[in-house]
Amino acid sequence: MACRGILCYLSITVVLIMPCCAAAEDQAQKTSPTAIVPTNTESLQRAIDAAYLAGQKKIVISPGVYPMDDRLRLRNLSDFEIDATGVTFARAEPTKTGISFDGCTDVTLRGLTLRCDKAPHTQGTIEAIDPDGTWIDLRVDAGYPADYLNQKTTGYCFDRKTRQWKAGTFDYGIASTEPRDGGLVRLHLDGHLGRNNQMLPGDLMGFRGPGGSDIAVFGCAKMKIIGVTLLGGTGFCMHESGGEGANYYSYRLTYCPRPPGAITDPLIASNADAFHSSGIRHGPTLENCSFEGMCDDGVPIHGEYAMVASSGTKELIIAGPGDRNFFRNGDPVRLLDTGAGYVGEAKVINSQLAAGFHPAEPLKDKKFVRCHRFYQLTLDHDLPAKPGDRVSDPNANGSGFVVRHCTIRNHRARGMLIKADDGLIEDNRIEGSTIADLVISPEYYWNEADYSRHLVIRNNFFGRCGYASTGPWNQQAGAVTLASEAKKRGPGGYGHQQITIENNTFEEIDGVNLFINSAQNVLVEGNRFLRPQQQPTRRGADYMDPEALIYLSDCDDVRFERNTVSAAGAYSKHTVEAAPTATNVAGERGGVSPIPSH
User: Which of 299, 307, 481, 596 has the fewest CB atoms within 10 Å, measured from its CB?
Assistant: First the structure.
């Protein structure tokens, strides 16, 4: 075993970290001269750092509850395990990141529970609503921090009986607040509630609080997060960004306990995504995870776009987000025009700093206006790029990801939001997503790349979705959606390619169950649609017919085989409806067959 510091051992040495209490101190003194009794995060930090520098492969933290008053920073570790089975880190301040791994390789975190003692969000009951729809009077629940309402935030309406996101409601931006008589807070809204408002006095509201990531995995490779439980998430609960990737995750996100002084349970389990992957060279594997109650997506996986500042024959000058260059020699370059249409692809022969380059005109795109460093990409063949176009690197978008045996339920937004190639989505259960269960789409507006190729989506359960935070304007309106933000197809053809959707179950989903757009070579085989479209909906009506079970537009070579529909409702008027822009569709009749009711 290689030495890593001043000490080297011939066998694995275990350091026991004992919880902070007198009994634990006595036990520590009796059992091990190396036992450490932490009283705060700094002591935990010293213990882990010391074990690693001593050359140990593993550190075991004794079961107990440990106060955590600051971030635990783990940097440049390799071939190391932190066994925290039976351990709870109690976070006093949820606005700070909990644990960060930076530049680590082959490090395992096992068994930990990360708990927020102060609620990371706030909530209350609606007592009055402005007849003109511009304000709401709220009584904040005891034990939940009212000061979170003093900053710009977003609120959500919850059904008073189910305590889940209320159907027909939306996201409510809070512009300002003012105290009212009787302990009420008046919330002045960014917008108008509208004529179709479903919010009523007596309904509940939850609001995002401030916060960083709960566990951050930045610039790492071959990480393993196993058996971890997050009780109350502050931001991106698990956030991996940059690095070689190939990380493995098996963890649970659920609601935190009632905070001190509270008499009501939390409405929200996390302020943002349960998991978030950005800019990874090899995508993550998520297995046997369970996520619920998030204010945003379950599993987003994506990269970023760079912007073309200048182009020439076999050459691009690009501005990267945050002045970064994620292209390496040999990587593919995927080009999108300014309307998000796919243009074409080439390979990078050489990537280097474009020293001394200055654009002919200042960059105007808000995502790149502050870029001061530019990079030159030499390509294996010419691409018809123009200044303002965007380029992505499919090798840095999380390609090769796997999401298997996971449960995602009862949350705002999308169960999964995928923008990566070469992925497997298998044996998952996704239900209760307010917008959609699974969306495969680039998001040009957020600068999140890209179209997806070579995906297999099989043996999943997709349940009720699309009931809140959505409407006719939403193109991501199918329970399973393949789409883009392109207003028209780019000159390179269809962005999504070679997608297999097989042996999945869609149960009791109103509106469009499957939407296929911006895609080519799609196989839809062996799927079961159970009791669909029982209730009317206008979700996605600007882009598709909500009374079509399956809707196709701007796609090519879509094949249906051995799919069945059982007990379709009164609002299922078309089994497969294809717009004129859908070409070479096969099996839309015989490949999607109703099962007679008995």
Answer: 596
